[in-house]
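Fill-in record for Adenylate/guanylate cyclase domain-containing protein.
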Amino acid sequence: MWLRIAERPWLFAALIVLALALLPVAVWLDLKNLSDNALSTQARTLNGMFNDIRGYYSANVVGRVQGFEGDSVAAHNYEDVPGAIPIPATLSLELGNVIAGRGVEDISYRFVSDFPFANRAPHNLDGFETKALADFRGTRDPEQVATEITGSLFERQIRMAVPVMLGQACVSCHNVHPESPKRDWQVGDVRGIQAITVHQPIARNLFSFKYLFMYFAGAGAFGIAFAGLQWRQANAFRHMNRELEDANGFLAAVSMKISKYLSPQIYKSIFSGEKDVVISTERKKLTIFFSDIKDFTETAEHLQPEELTSLLNEYFTEMSTIAHEHGATVDKFIGDAILAFFGDPETRGAREDANACLDMAIAMQRRMVELKSEWRRRGIEKPFEVRMGINTGYCNVGNFGSADRMDYTIIGAEANLAARLQHVAEPGGIVISYETWAHVQDRVRVHRLDPITLKGISGEIVPYAVEGIHDAPSQSAETINETGNGLSLFLDITKLDGEARRRAETVLEKALGAVRRKGEA
């Protein structure tokens, strides 16, 4: 049942609203019950008191007057005087005894004074009564009321006292009565106090709140059940979270492995949901980059397979890093060749894509100069020399293949032209098409090469070789990077320590002498 409630939030909300609505109902029912019980108890108590007072009055007042033929008088010792009736003070004292005689524990009545008649036992006043009597005599206010509330956690008690003040008739009687303890009473003097004590045991009314107890019992049961349901759901969620964490960890590991086979842009677009993994292509204007290692087969013959693999992987890693920095989409590695393009899945416009591709190619060639120096130091006699071609034009780009095996790539004559352009480039050089040159002509120097023909394209195509590849503005006097026919020099003075500097001087002097001797010859 709890699961059905948890699965229906509106039903749970309705139960909460119903529970909140029942709380004031339960409180009202209990207050009504408590009020009924209190009123019933007070009614029974007062009814018994009135019956006792009526009986006392009938026996000690009416009966005595009716049973005496002479004149009746009021006296404090009326029982000793035939036909006498009790004076008000005596009546109050004896009424207190009548009430106390009923054995009522919750209500008591006392009429006491510190000036009792001579033939009566003295009244024992407690602290509350003594203080109240002193306060009443100090203020002489007939409306003054003294109150004291005491008790413990399970019972409460209230005591209330009012002054008993003498009128003219009372003064006349007390000042001449032979047994009066005082003969100078005046009108308005406080003769004593009248005190009523009401005792209320709280524990006795504990079960008067049965509806509230029932409500809290139901709320407690509901809360326990709800807490149990929450605990069960929390355990289920923890179990699900652990499974999801394991699944996410597995998927993350798999996705990281898959990312090695895809370009960062394609990986991002697929896993972000921007692209669907379905066979689809579209025609876009791209700038295509194609590079190839000159005489790779000949170089491979002079290297062991393990060394060749390490060298080739290092080359691909360096070139891929540069491509990623410039925003290229690396299509594939074809043997020792690299095919990359700009314009999909992200593009900054044909002009910006062409400039970005050219910047990437220049950065790659500059990095190749550093790598060749490093490889020579490691004993590679013929390090790689790379030729590069760039073309701009429309291609079909997208997912090609079958429903079971797809490849994200480009096809079209423009891609073939980029491959052909790299064939006519010099080692370490970059050749671009006219379409690419039109976008980058304001920032590079080029010279025309002999026209070429390409199968599938009518007419001749004029390639342009990029000049000043290594004349970078960032190159300072502390860095020398020169290449040419029979010349390959890269020198970073900032990295030379004392021993390396002396060795560089020796090598350069030796090279300069050799060049001069060759010129003189």
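KEY FINDING: Residues 9-66 form the longest helix (58 residues).
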